[in-house]
Design brief:
Subcellular location (chain B): Cell inner membrane
Number of helices of chain A: 10
Number of helices of chain B: 19
Helix content of chain A: over 70%
Protein name (chain B): Glutathione import ATP-binding protein GsiA
Radius of gyration of chain A: 22 Å
CATH topology of the largest domain in chain B: Rossmann fold
Number of domains of chain B: 2
Strand content of chain B: 25-35%
Order of helices and strands of chain A: HHHHHHHHHH
GO molecular function (chain B): ATP binding; ATP hydrolysis activity
CATH class of chain A: Mainly Alpha
Family (chain B): Belongs to the ABC transporter superfamily. Glutathione importer (TC 3.A.1.5.11) family.
Structural class of chain A: mainly alpha
CATH architecture of the largest domain in chain B: 3-Layer(aba) Sandwich
Number of strands of chain A: 0
Oligomer: heterotrimer
Number of strands of chain B: 23
Chains: A mainly alpha (263), B alpha/beta (606), C mainly alpha (281)
CATH architecture of chain A: Orthogonal Bundle
CATH class of the largest domain in chain B: Alpha Beta
Membrane topology (chain B): Peripheral membrane protein
């Protein structure tokens, strides 16, 4: 049995032949179902992508304005309250958020579905309704992270000489804040959005288990229990590749924002 | 509407407090002054005098508590709302700042930033705004404005950026222009151009200018009237001629005594101490026996350093910065050789290459008997003892976490020059010698002022009994009076120990006082070298002449006649990879006074 | 390090978050250390008659599926969770500092080490730990190593950056000019001045490690259930969360509080050690 699966070969050799396969877009087969790993990943892709896309979009939409406003009114009531909320929500583990949210909004209040996933093909509204709770729990820490960086980056930018110049010109607050400051502050913000995707990937594994979403995260957890190495390897490789790709794209975005950066 | 004879700006009993960690601190303790229409008023003072706070308060750019009265153009400014203040900024009062490199938004095109300033106060379409912006760029004499409208700030040099800032300030046709140290960060030749421009535009536009500076030379050059500030108070206000000729306040007198005046050493051969303070302008006369027969302690031959510029994805070498090009000179014990030039000319790189903080590419350096560029290991450590450095920024040159005493003794002990007790004795002795109490050894750097830290850095350099001290802009960052004191200290120490100084500086007036010989650097090369009296008295290279004539002299009687120099862009020292430099040719115009001839043609047009 | 010797009361006034976080953390550590004094109950005592009971006077946090007292398990569980946090912070910080120093000082090593660090960083940290755990057995030591590895690159990059900029600092050049050797420069001049951000990041690593441990337990790749940790107590209760939420809720709450406390200490230290907070004046 072990021989047939190649498990008795030295680890380096196993890894080498797996890597060889990867270079030919062959991730191997599952030890459990004998299905090609690539096919399994393809089947489980939609829920994970949906969850992460919704989380990412809404997190950025919430976090950036909050961070900008907190920096503009530094030391004010809004700033102090959001700073406390940010450190708290950054500290709550994803599963704690997930279970608490599901218990309150699904079990007790019955406003939202408890668990499961509705494919996008069955309509945007049911798809979205089902994603609200998972995305909210996945996004809690991510929003806090982006808001904190946005605030810090804005504070630093608002301290720059060219902001003083803009004020000396007599420009209005809105123009100073959103054109002069936010654009200059955006490189660290964009960077953290990209780096934070790692957090989303790790969080997705947990969130999908909490909400029983049949995505890649749940497949990871299932495969660990079955000790299905080729699948785990394949998922780790797939996620890492996606993560690197996202951050490469972000590097290209820099050049649009900052004329001093050239590739 | 408003009375044209009434002052444009009238400040009465202005008090300003700024928030700090422990409550508010009062920075301005009630100042009064008037600024008339069509007038340039200089506000001069040393750091901490409150001159910049005054300017920023007038603009409403500080989170400060303000009391007193500020009347501008018939209107009281204290108590205006944020929005009223915003309306006033740019249109009534405009401002330019000290740091042209960071004062423009790096992500927006220069033309856009100008158009934005125009449209902030006046309704106009983009085409009109663009045409007006072009006019402004022409007005501040930016060459090729059509093309440069669409460039980003990082394509502009410091001087050009300051021109853009001025253009932007003119956009709202202000009645008052506040210029906060607008030329301090610029090279002296660029400074002369910008001062000229501000003066011309002031006349042309009929503005009043509030000119803030620490430089008495600039004051004498530009101001109709002068206000001297000290510790948040105005100690003296009057017409510039009178303030310079017959200062009333003790502080003004002390300040003027400490200021070096370029040209006042004409007729003297050797260095002389600054007057006024402790010494009385006595000439520096070598005392140490060693100096009766001076010997060569440093001999630099054909020194060369290039920095590679890598570009593209593969990091190919796309060009080289020729930072030092065939530099040769020598230094005797007890002598000061000044290495002067503007930023980027290679003077600091030369100092760092000699003390082996960077590795030179070619040439030779003989330092106190060591082949300095080729020694290594134990010999390198011995060589390092012979050459010590003093740096420009006194705040950065001491480790903030280590006590003064330990900083002083460290190198002495590491080099096993003596026991810890001997090290402490020597440190105490040197601290006394540089004018500090030996007890300071137990304290940390943050407890000292800039001038005191520079004294500590000098004591540290002397711990190893070096033969040569490379002083890289060692007094440039200090306030006028402190600068004079530290310069005097350096001369005292040379008299006593016979140390040779390689005195790297851009400050021609200090160099005139302190140096025996002068080497002028331009674009990596020495273009003129010789005895100080000869180089300053009969400058023979066009660049030296240009440099000397650009230095503002703190004497309103000697204000230069107005002439509008064309903007001069310093030659870039970047060359393509295969570039071979033609050999330099020196001509001896007088004994020991050499001039480089191949570089003269570059200055033909000026 | 004058900042460290400031009186405690002044720190508490200027950095209330730091003081509160440190107090909570101290309380949690004390409870874990003195667990036998806090509760006489054996955390491993199984009572099948008392399975999954809701909180009551006998069991203030209720019991788990095997009838074990949850309060006792959580108090004892703090020992493992907090130790993992501290151990990971120490290992990753020391290893990252060494790598960062070498990379900052040796050109050749820099290229190699930093490419490896980039490689490690390209794998999302939880997945890296999951993958490493899948390859090994679920022992406590392996969990610590797996979480540490993903924490190393951040510290290494930070230290390398500090080394590269401090090497060029004027005061370091002055010391080099005095003939002082590289070793002394690193340990006396560079490391002490680079310490503040390293310490701050070590606290964040500690918080992240406690979280990662719980995540690993949650997906079945964590510490063995024989020794209680906040993570594995919760993982055991998760199948019953809809009907018996207290089994998940209490360990999750304590874990959140602990992570929050560590993060508050980190933020407080960051503000306190920030060089821009007026060292010059």
């Amino acid at each position: 049995m072990r021989h047939a699966l190649g498990l008795d070969r030295p680890f380096a050799l196993q890894f080498g032949s797996w890597l060889w396969g990867v270079l030919h877009f062959d991730l191997g087969n599952s030890l459990f179902s004998n299905m090609p790993v690539a096919t399994m990943i393809g089947q489980r892709l939609e829920p994970t992508l949906s969850l992460m896309a919704v989380t990412l979009v809404f997190s950025v939409l919430i976090a950036v304005p909050v961070g900008v406003w907190a920096a503009w009114r530094k030391g004010g009531g809004f700033d102090r309250v959001t700073t406390v909320i940010a450190v708290v929500s950054f500290s709550i583990p994803v599963f704690a958020c997930g279970y608490a949210g599901a218990w309150l909004f699904a079990l007790k209040l019955g406003w939202l579905p408890v668990q499961g996933y509705t494919p996008l093909s069955e309509g945007i509204v049911p798809w979205f309704r089902q994603l609200i709770l998972p995305a909210a729990s996945l996004g809690t820490a991510y929003v806090a992270l982006i808001a904190r960086i946005t605030r810090a980056s804005m504070l630093e930018t608002l301290d720059q000489d060219y902001i003083r110049t803009a004020r000396a010109k007599g420009l209005g607050d809105g123009r100073i804040l959103f054109l002069h400051a936010l654009k200059n502050a955006s490189v660290p913000i964009i960077t953290i959005i990209g780096i934070g995707v790692a957090m989303l990937i790790g969080g997705a594994v947990v969130t999908e288990s909490v909400f029983v979403i049949p995505g890649l995260g749940r497949l990871t957890a299932e495969s660990i229990l079955r000790r299905d190495f080729p699948v785990i390897q394949g998922i780790v490789l797939f996620f890492s590749f996606s993560y690197v790709l996202v951050n490469l794209l972000i590097d290209l975005v820099y050049a649009f924002v900052d004329p001093r950066i050239r590739y | 509407m408003t009375d044209q004879n009434e002052p444009l700006l009238s400040v009465r009993n202005l008090r300003v407090s700024l928030p700090t960690e422990d409550g508010a601190a009062e920075i301005l303790h009630g100042i009064d002054f008037d600024l008339n229409r069509n007038e340039i008023l200089a506000v001069v003072g040393e750091s901490g005098s409150g001159k910049s706070v005054t300017a920023l308060t007038l603009m409403g750019l500080l989170p400060a508590r303000v009391s007193g009265s500020v009347r501008f153009d018939g209107r009281e400014l204290t108590g205006l709302t944020r929005e009223e203040m915003r309306q006033l900024r740019g249109r009534g009062i405009a401002m330019i700042f000290q740091e042209p490199m960071t004062s423009l938004n790096p992500l927006l095109k220069v033309g856009y930033q100008l158009e934005e300033a125009l449209r902030a106060h006046e309704r106009m379409d983009r085409r009109t705004a663009r045409a007006r912006a072009l006019d402004l760029m022409r007005k501040v004499r930016i060459p090729d404005p059509e093309r440069r409208m669409d460039s980003y700030p990082h394509h502009f040099s410091g001087g050009m950026r300051q021109r853009v800032m001025i253009a932007m300030a003119l956009a709202g046709r202000p009645k008052l222009l506040i210029a906060d140290e607008p030329t301090t960060a610029l090279d002296v030749t660029i400074q002369a151009e910008i001062l000229e421009l501000i003066r011309d535009l002031q006349r042309l536009e009929g503005m009043a200018v509030l000119f803030i500076t620490h430089d008495m030379g600039v004051v004498a050059e530009i101001a109709d009237r002068t206000m001297v500030m000290y510790h948040g108070r105005a100690v003296e206000t009057g017409p510039t001629d009178e303030v310079f000729a017959a200062p009333k306040a003790d502080y003004t007198r002390a300040l003027l005594d400490a200021v070096p005046r370029l040209g006042e050493m004409a007729g003297h051969d050797g260095p002389q101490r600054f007057r006024g303070l402790a010494g009385t302008g006595t000439p520096v006369a070598p005392r140490s026996a060693d100096l009766k027969k001076p010997q060569t302690v440093l001999d630099v031959r054909h020194l060369q350093k290039r920095f590679e510029i890598k570009g593209g994805i593969f990091g190919r070498v796309t060009g080289r910065v020729h930072a030092i090009e065939d530099v040769s000179f020598s230094l005797m014990s007890g002598e000061t050789l000044a290495l002067v030039g503007e930023s980027g000319c290679g003077k600091s790189t030369t100092g760092r290459a000699i003390s082996r903080l960077i590795e030179a590419d070619g040439g030779s350096v003989m330092l106190d008997g060591f082949d300095a560029l080729n020694v290594s290991g134990a010999d390198l450590r011995r060589m390092r003892r012979s050459v010590q450095m003093i740096f420009q920024d006194p705040y950065a040159s001491l480790n903030p976490r280590i006590r003064i005493g330990a900083s002083l003794c460290e190198a002495y002990l590491v080099n096993r020059l003596g026991s810890p007790a001997e090290a402490q004795d020597k440190a105490a002795h040197l601290l006394t010698k540089v004018g500090l109490n030996p007890d300071v050894a137990r304290r940390f750097p943050h407890e000292f002022s800039g001038g005191q830290r520079q004294r500590i850095a000098i004591a540290r350099a002397l711990m190893l009994d070096p033969r040569v001290i490379v002083a890289d802009e060692a007094v440039s960052a200090l306030d006028v009076s402190v600068k004079a004191q530290v310069s005097n200290l350096l001369m005292d120490l040379q008299e006593e120990t016979g140390v040779g100084y390689l005195f790297i500086s851009h400050d021609m007036a200090v160099v005139e006082r302190i140096a025996h010989r002068v080497a002028v650097m331009y674009s990596g090369r020495i273009v003129e070298i010789g005895p100080r009296a000869a180089v300053f008295g009969t400058p023979s290279h066009p660049y030296t002449r240009r440099l000397l004539s650009a230095v503002p002299v703190p004497d309103p009687a000697r204000r230069r006649a107005a002439h509008a120099p064309a903007p001069f862009e310093t030659r870039s020292p970047i060359r393509p990879p295969g570039h071979v430099t033609p050999p330099l040719r020196y001509r001896e115009v007088a004994p020991g006074h050499l001039v480089e001839e191949t570089s003269m043609s570059e200055f033909a047009r000026t | 390090m004058a900042a460290i010797t400031l009186p405690m009361r002044r720190i508490a006034r200027r950095h209330p978050g730091l003081a509160l976080g440190a107090a909570i953390l101290a309380a949690l550590c004390l409870l874990a250390l003195c667990a036998p004094l806090v509760t006489p109950v054996d955390p491993g005592f199984v009572d099948m008659s008392q399975r999954a009971k809701a909180p009551s006077w006998d069991h203030i946090f209720g019991t788990d599926m095997l009838g074990r007292d949850l309060f006792a398990r959580i108090i004892y569980g703090g020992r493992l969770s907090l130790s993992i946090g501290v151990a990971v912070a120490l290992i990753a910080t020391v290893a990252g500092t060494v790598i960062g120093l070498v990379a900052g000082y040796v050109r050749l090593a820099d290229a190699i080490l930093m490419r490896i660090m980039d490689g490690v960083m390209s794998i999302p940290s939880v997945l890296l730990a999951v993958a490493l755990m899948a390859l090994s057995t679920g022992s406590i030591g392996n969990v610590i190593v797996a979480i540490s590895i993903s924490g190393i690159p951040r510290i290494a990059r930070l230290v390398r950056g500090s080394v590269l900029s401090l090497r060029e600092a004027v005061f370091v050049e002055a010391v080099i000019g005095g003939g002082v050797g590289t070793g002394r420069i690193i340990f006396r001049h560079i490391l002490p001045n680079a310490a503040a951000p390293i310490i701050v990041n070590a606290t964040y690593l500690c918080a992240g490690a406690m979280l990662s441990e719980a995540v690993l337990c949650f997906i079945g790749a964590g510490t063995p259930p024989t020794v209680p940790s906040w993570g594995n107590i919760m993982a055991e209760g998760r199948t019953l969360w809809m009907v018996k939420p207290h089994i998940v809720a209490f360990p999750a709450l304590i874990l959140s509080i602990a992570i929050l406390a560590v993060n508050m200490v980190g933020d407080g230290l960051r503000d306190m050690l920030d060089p821009r907070a007026g060292r010059r004046n």
